[in-house]
Design a protein that fits this description.
By secondary structure, the protein is α/β, with parallel strands linked by helices. Helices cover 44% and strands 11% of the residues. It is built from eleven helices and seven strands.
Amino acid sequence: MSTTTGTTSTSTPDRVDATTLSSWLGQPDAVTVLDVRSPGEFEAMHIAGSYNVPLQMLGEHAAAFAARLAHHEDHQVVLVCQSGARATQARQRLAGVGAANLHVLDGGVPSYAAAGGEVVRGAGRWAMDRQVRLVAGSIVLASTLASLAAPKARFLAGGIGAGLTYSALSNSCAMATMLGKLPYNRGPKNPDVAQVIEQLPASATPQDSTPQDSTPQDSAPGSRA
């Protein structure tokens, strides 16, 4: 007896590829896309229809964002960044306060653009991971050269190496957090938490099923006809 099975995705349940995301975006009220990169990175290029919620902001107000994203059970939330690392952190923080239907986009925004997905491009800026490589590499190079005259300078290079190792093991990056606070990465303006939450699609609120009295009522004092 033969058994027919469906196609099995290579992605884990909490991850989606560019094709799946593009399909969801084509359906009304199917998905909300949160871009957790810095405002500067978002301005440079972002997925059409996505919302910018910087990772640090989301982490500090995870419960408020989770409440705003509490749609019906079929509504999906996809978190995106440059590579997937920051989006994974965002997913963990939202899941920790009870948010559901959370997914991370494989390969981040670049993979979505490479797959032909619709993106919005603005002023060219370096991606955060590229900035981290530049700063870390420059410090290591400078400290190595300085150690020729001052041997203890080599410990600075070792410190950077240890920091990068911890970053990989913990899936976090303190240097990226610090760089994200620079004016270069803030975009045209520093977003306000209340404004960011307000721009997100609100969760659907079931209508009151109690029958309404059809008898005309007197207007309340001060109300406008």
